[in-house]
Design brief:
two-stranded parallel ribbon, mainly alpha, 204 residues
C-alpha cells in the first residue's frame, strides 16, 4: 500500500515595502481597503466606498496611493472605461523593525500602531458577532494570553515557531479572495508577542 500523494504547499505572495511604502500603508482606511481586497477579491472604488462609508473621491485617492507603492494593481479583464477594478498584488505584508533606525523605525512603528488600532476594532466586532455564531465556530474561537518567563533567544525561537505554524496553515488553505470550499470561511489569527510591560506596582 502506498501513501497518497500530498498536495504541495502553495506559494504565498508577500511584499516587503520600503520606508515610503510603510508610510503610505500606515493609514487606517488604506489598511481596511487592502484587507478587503485581499480577503474578498477585486473591487471598485465606489464599491469599497460604500462598504467603508467613504466618498468615492477619497477612496480613489487611497487606492492610487496603494497602487503607487505596489500593494494593489488594476484587475485585468474587469471593469470598463468608466470604472476601474482593483486587486491585491500579494497576500501578506512583511516588515521587520528589529534592526531599523531613524525614519525607517518611525515608519514601521506608525504602521504597527495603525495595525493595532484596526485589530482592536476587529476583535470588538468579532466579540459582538459571537452570540450569533454557530456552536462549531464558537468552539473554534478563542481570546487568550499567557506570560512565560524566558530569555530573548528563547522568546524569538518561540514566536518563530508560532509563525511557522500559521504560515503552514496558510499554505495548506485555499488562497483568499476566491471561491472557498463548502463550510469554509476566512478565519483570522492575530499574534502579539512581547516582553510583559511594566504596569507599575500593584495598587499604586
Amino acid at each position: 500500500m502506498t501513501d497518497a500523494p500530498q498536495t504541495p504547499a502553495r506559494e504565498i505572495s508577500s511584499i516587503v515595502p520600503d520606508t515610503g511604502g510603510l508610510k503610505a500603508l500606515a493609514h487606517p482606511e488604506r489598511l481596511r481597503m487592502l484587507a478587503l481586497l485581499r480577503v474578498d477579491g477585486p473591487a471598485t472604488a465606489s464599491g469599497l466606498a460604500r462598504r467603508l462609508g467613504l466618498n468615492s473621491g477619497a477612496t480613489s485617492y487611497h487606492l492610487r496611493q496603494l497602487a503607487k507603492h505596489g500593494f494593489i494593481e488594476e484587475a485585468e479583464g474587469q471593469g470598463n472605461a468608466r470604472e476601474r477594478w482593483w486587486r491585491a498584488r500579494h497576500e501578506s505584508t512583511q516588515y521587520d523593525t528589529a534592526a531599523a533606525e531613524g525614519e525607517a523605525l518611525e515608519a514601521g512603528m506608525a504602521l504597527t500602531r495603525a495595525l493595532l488600532a484596526g485589530q482592536m476594532q476587529l476583535l470588538q466586532a468579532a466579540q459582538d458577532d459571537y452570540p450569533a455564531l454557530p456552536e462549531e465556530w464558537r468552539a473554534a474561537s478563542t481570546a487568550s494570553d499567557a506570560v512565560i518567563p524566558m530569555n530573548a533567544e528563547a522568546a524569538r525561537a518561540f514566536q518563530e515557531k508560532l509563525m511557522a505554524l500559521i504560515w503552514e496553515a496558510k499554505q495548506a488553505a485555499p488562497a483568499p479572495g476566491g471561491d472557498l470550499p463548502e463550510g469554509a470561511r476566512p478565519f483570522m489569527v492575530m499574534l502579539h508577542a512581547f516582553p510583559f510591560p511594566d504596569l507599575g506596582e500593584a495598587g499604586a
